[in-house]
Write a structure and sequence with these properties.
Structural class of chain A: alpha/beta
Radius of gyration of chain B: 14 Å
Order of helices and strands of chain A: HHHHHEEHHHEEHH
Largest interface: A-B, 48 and 49 residues
CATH topology of the largest domain in chain A: Nitrile Hydratase, Chain A
CATH class of one domain in chain B: Mainly Alpha
Distance between the termini of chain A: 38 Å
Number of strands of chain A: 4
CATH architecture of the largest domain in chain A: Alpha-Beta Complex
CATH topology of one domain in chain B: Cyclin A, domain 1
Number of helices of chain B: 4
Shape of chain A: globular
CATH class of the largest domain in chain A: Alpha Beta
Largest sheet of chain B: none
Order of helices and strands of chain B: HHHH
Number of helices of chain A: 10
Radius of gyration of chain A: 19 Å
Structural class of chain B: mainly alpha
Number of strands of chain B: 0
Strand content of chain A: 5-15%
CATH architecture of one domain in chain B: Orthogonal Bundle
Strand order of the largest sheet of chain A: 1-4
CATH superfamily of one domain in chain B: Nitrile hydratase, beta subunit
Distance between the termini of chain B: 29 Å
Strand content of chain B: under 5%
Number of domains of chain A: 2
Oligomer: heterodimer
Largest sheet of chain A: 2 strands, parallel
Helix content of chain B: 40-55%
């Protein structure tokens, strides 16, 4: 499998090279801009952006309101641009409460708040996650080690090309006594997707 | 009939895959960035991109690695 995988990679790289040359020839994008976009994905666009937004919401009720009202604007407030694609993509923040737990999926492909949180994990893009989390969210959450009280309602948000979701987890007991850096460490990417809780 | 990508609620896809990195090969990151640039430049819309992927015949769709589906779509939309 891995041997043929290498051959496949060579073939796929060659096909991408053809497109890159074509795009440059047509003046759409040159190799420097491609490299710059890849560099950006590896550095400044990461789940830390979402964590910054969540921690601010934990510590500032007015920001929390703005985040739930217009997450894209609340992200921009903290210098998180959401750039790279198009302004048609809206970010929505959905907040966990003692009564409701939220989890995000894209059943049709892999829509994800990538411009704000970085590329999604491999499992988010898998047919296994996409098919099952809408049918058995508690079962999937349990595989991530997350068990919710029976009384908690689980809401599964199915993202689309236009609407991307991030979960605002509840601050755990004692979070108020931690420094902001310690709070940031609690808000992992999986918490922002809703398969984990801090 | 539903397209192959419409997997919500379906059975039989097995276990969740290992963690994995965002991109496993250079070409994957490049096709990602190229698609982003094409959408930003208005060559085609994100909906057109998705629709093109969604029309991949089911047998081919499931056989293709994730980013090959992206490549398949850009190959049909860019030229």
């Amino acid at each position: 499998m891995s041997g043929s995988g290498h051959h496949r990679n060579g073939e796929l790289q060659a096909r991408v090279n053809v497109l890159l040359a074509l795009a440059e020839e047509r003046g759409i994008v040159d190799r420097e801009e491609i490299d710059r976009r890849i560099e950006l994905l590896g550095s400044s666009v990461s789940p830390l952006n979402g964590a910054l937004m969540v921690v601010r919401a934990w510590n500032d009720d007015a920001y929390r309101e703005r985040l739930l009202d217009d997450a894209g604007a609340a992200a921009a407030e903290l210098g998180v641009s959401g750039g790279g694609y198009s302004s048609d993509i809206r970010l929505h923040a959905v907040a966990n409460t003692p009564e409701v737990h939220n989890v995000v999926v894209c059943t049709l492909c892999s829509c994800y708040p990538l411009a704000w949180l970085g590329p999604p994990p491999a499992w988010y893009k898998s047919e296994a996650y996409r098919s099952r989390v809408v049918r058995d969210p508690r079962g999937v959450l349990a595989e991530f080690g997350t068990t919710l009280p029976d009384a908690t309602e689980v809401r599964v948000w199915d993202a689309s090309a236009e609407a991307r979701y991030m979960v605002v987890p509840m601050a755990p007991a004692g979070a108020a006594d931690l420094s902001e850096d310690q709070q940031l460490d609690l808000v992992t990417r999986d918490c922002l997707i809703g398969v984990a809780v801090p | 009939m539903a397209y192959a990508n419409d997997v919500g609620g379906m059975h039989g896809f097995g276990d969740l895959p290992e963690e994995g990195h965002g991109f496993e090969s250079v070409w994957e990151a490049q096709v990602f960035a190229l698609n982003q640039a094409c959408v930003a430049a208005g060559v085609y819309t994100l909906d057109e991109f998705r629709h093109t992927m969604e029309r991949i015949p089911p047998a081919e769709y499931y056989a293709m690695p994730y980013y090959e589906r992206w490549l398949y779509a850009v190959e049909r939309l860019l030229p």
